[in-house]
Amino acid sequence: MHHRNCEFNISAFTDVGTFRKNNQDGILVNGQFSNKGFINTNKQSFLSCFVADGVGGNNAGEFASKFVLEEISNCKLSDLSQIDYEYLEKINQNLIGATKKDQKLTGAATTLSGIICLNATLKIIHAGDSEIWLLRNDSFIKVTNDQVLSAQVKNSPITSYFGGKENYLSLDNTICLEEIKTLDKFLICSDGLFKALKTKQLKAILGAKKTLQIKIEKILEMVLENGAEDNVSVILIEAYA
Asked: What is the pLDDT of residues 215-230, one digit of tens each?
């Protein structure tokens, strides 16, 4: 693995959008959970960044996304590298157990997409249809594949997720990003982002010579101008030596 000395700037937001009553998304940025507003942090020596997009009626989706992200945030920094399939499977079982006890939470489920980078070891975790993108040199590449019934259909039901009435979690282990390089820029988002903005617009914002904080504010401003029908969460990460 290269670039042991990579540092990271991170800017993020999660927003209810213009249409929904509550925000079923949540974000986790290096241990800090939020389901409202911005998080900005610079010169981080590690990454533990996740977006979770909750599904389910009433506040069930909100419960599920918060549950999974808080379980991950309980993990000590030294244990971050131990977040593997078994660890996440346990979180999933805990969530299924918690929602069985309360009728209001029946069917609570959530996507999870995130990046862990510690001591130059990179791990990408993905279940559902939240997305991870990478801007490297001038290529804006989608790193994850949506786990949905039909990729051709808008709002197609997700086929892999945390929670629900029984175990449907099938983490994507086909992602082939081996390392983070200096000047890489990552975008982690819920599917609400691409309902409101085009890929081309995002690439232009990410590539601009502005601070991450300005970029993240610009993304939110444009998303709301375009009438975000869904909750929107975005985490921007830039790596530098």
From this structure: 999 999 999 999 888 9
User: Which contacts (CB < 8 Å, 24+ apart) does range 212-217 have?
Assistant: 212/9, 212/10, 212/11, 212/40, 212/236, 212/238, 213/11, 213/40, 215/11, 216/11, 216/12, 216/13, 216/38, 216/40, 217/38
Alpha helices in the chain, H assignment, sequence order: 60-73, 85-100, 192-196, 199-207, 212-225
DSSP type of residue 177 = -
Q: The tokens 């309980």 sit on which residue?
A: 74
Record the pTM.
0.96
How far is Cα 148 from Cα 75, in angstroms, rounded to an integer?
29
What's the rounded Cα separation, in Å, for the pair 159 and 168? 7
